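W.,

You were right to be curious about this one. When I first looked at the sequence I had no strong expectations either way, so I just let the prediction run and decided to look at it fresh. Below is the sequence, 165 residues in total, followed by the output.
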Amino acid sequence: MNYFFITLGYSGLSPKAPGTVGSFVALLLGMLALIYFDAQTLFLATVLISIIAIKSIDKYEAKTGIHDDKRIVIDELAGMWFALSVAPAMSVGMYEVLEYDNGFLIQSLLSFALFRYFDIKKPSIIGRIDRETKGGIGVMGDDIIAGFAAGILSALLWQGYLQLL
């Protein structure tokens, strides 16, 4: 069960770009959560999953001796879900997902792209956490910060775009 959890339903076992595959799976699951629940529920679920993930990753690292194994992608879920709880940060009905006016799909995809950028490039504090913090907190911490940064920047870009209209 632990391996299924930390690999996000085995999506982290993808032979190519497991982080991107895990992030995309997290994007789809997060968008579904926002269709059926609200942003606060997604945020709180992400906090709970992050706490469980830190403990699970610590156990995995103690057992295998591998820090930040590329197959571990539960951190991508946390980052993506934090990004989605910031932007679009709204619940929509199933039939409203593709409506341009509410910005749900655009902000979700923009959050995905920005999260992947921050997660890969690791600028500023994101890289520092990745390099200097060990264990589950180190694995999860950089993605959590990257998720918040992606969500905030996505929301700002969307609001800036709306101001231009």
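Here's what jumped out at me. Helices lie at 2-6, 18-36, 39-64, 74-86, 104-121, 124-132, 135-164. And, maybe more interesting for your project: The first helix runs from residue 2 to 6.

Coffee later to discuss?

I.
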